[in-house]
Amino acid sequence: MSATTREIRLASRPHGEPTDEDFELGESPLPEPGPGEVLVRNSYLSVDPYMRGRMRDVKSYIPPFQVGEVLEGGAVGQVVASNDGRFEEGAWIQHMAGWREHALVGDGALAYPVDPAVAPIGTSLGVLGMPGLTAYAGVTEVAPVEEGETVYVSAAAGAVGSVAGQIARLRGCRVVGSAGSAEKVEWLTGELGFDAAFDYHDVELTQALREHCPKGIDVYFDNVGGDHLSAALGRMRVHGRVALCGAVAEYNEETPQSGPDNFVGVIPRRLSLRGFIVFDHAHLLKPFLSEVGAWVRAGDLRYRETVVEGLENMPSAFNGLLAGDNIGKMLVKVGPDPA
User: Fold this and answer.
1) Rounded mean pLDDT, 174-183
2) Which residues contact 183 (CB under 8 A, 6 or more apart)?
3) Exposed, middle or buried by CB within 10 Å (0-12, 13-18, 19+), for 241?
4) Measuring CA to CA, which of 73, 101, 161, 285 is 20 to 30 A from 139?
5) Burial degree of 181 (CB within 10 A; 0-12, 13-18, 19+)
6) Are 185 and 178 in contact (CB under 8 A)?
């Protein structure tokens, strides 16, 4: 084993779209696990939109990244040395110490065992991980869908949206999605079984929703914000529900964007709009893994991963995610798969 390992640090706080100068690829001595710690050789790193917010020095639901320090995020890898009785050497675990090739994971940290025999390990960061749980919480608890309803999902070809739409479909809903390319639209209406989908680059949003949701929208799962939220609010049915999951259209903006100009319609339609963070829904993890895991194993719920090779390409993969280059979950491969 090499005496050093590589990691990516935040070199400066981005203004607008992050650039290569905002990140630093560095090396550090390979650490030895202390009491209650394990050393993990990471194999896959998660790339998630929320990370952009952590690059700003502002108070939020999760502390900001610090300039000069290693960035952090979801990762899955194999334990190569252990001083923690929970995880033996050779075990595979999912944890939150990513953006590096090796990680020390201590007792009390968010770390969970992963069984490569049940599903490919990358799924622990995607369809069977935090994005999947986010989708599940959104359509079962935050804005619960009911059979026969119309559900609209923006950024529907992403890691969260693709799962949210499929769960709604499997619960008997009519599902409409928007995405950023013809290839994504074909994936949604073909393999994933969405009832309709459209490329938002090619249409006017209000007109597209009028066409594809002629009776209105009962539930909107919002991953985009901005003009998508405005258009969806204009088509919501009375007592409709909106799960406010993300606003990827605004993450690189340096000045606050104006809100929907039709917000007054929320009142007569008696709409419910609820923002949510997946950490508040950890109690759903067991039913999520049971229900969605069964669907994945049966092939009833499909997923795709966009995999970028090499730790050095983590920043470009991150920017690609914000630009919509991925289909399904964006991952960076930095180590070996299970034998």
Assistant:
1) 98
2) 327
3) buried
4) 73
5) middle
6) no
CA distance 132 to 71: 23
Per-residue pLDDT at 257 exceeds 80: no
pLDDT in tens, 271-297: 999 999 999 999 999 999 999 999 999
Structural tokens at position 281? 């829904």
Which amino acid is located at 53 in the chain?
Answer: G
Residue 280, sorted as left (phi over 0), alpha (psi -120 to 50) or beta, turns out to be alpha
> Alpha-carbon torsion 292, 296, 302, 304, what sign?
positive
- In Å, how far are 41, 169, 277, 317, 334 from 45, measured between CA atoms? 11, 29, 21, 11, 7
**pLDDT digit string (tens) for 30-58?**
999 999 999 999 999 999 999 999 999 99
The phi-psi region of residue 143 (left if phi > 0; otherwise alpha if psi is between -120 and 50; otherwise beta) is: beta
Angle at the Cα of 70 from the Cα atoms of 65 and 71, rounded to 5 degrees: 50
Structure confidence by residue, pLDDT tens digits, 193-247: 999 999 999 999 999 999 999 999 999 999 999 999 999 999 999 999 999 999 9
Look up residue 30 and give its two tokens. Answer: 């390979």
**Triad 150, 152, 154: Cα angle to 5°:** 175
The residue whose two tokens read 């290569």 is 20
152-176 mean pLDDT = 98
Dihedral pair phi/psi, residue 91, rounded to 5°: -70, 155
User: How many helices (DSSP H) and strands (DSSP E) are in the chain?
Assistant: 8, 15
Nearest to 231 by CA among 272, 190, 263: 263
Q: Which two tokens stand for residue 75?
A: 């990762």
Query: According to the 3-state scheme, what is the secondary structure of 70-128?
Result: ECCCCEEEEEEEECCCCCCCCCEEEECCCCECEEEEECCCCEEEECCCCCCHHHHHCCC
Write the burial class of residue 178 (CB in 10 Å: 0-12 exposed, 13-18 middle, 19+ buried): buried
Residue 96 to residue 289: CA distance in whole angstroms: 19
Can you tell me which residue has the tokens 């990370």?
A: 51
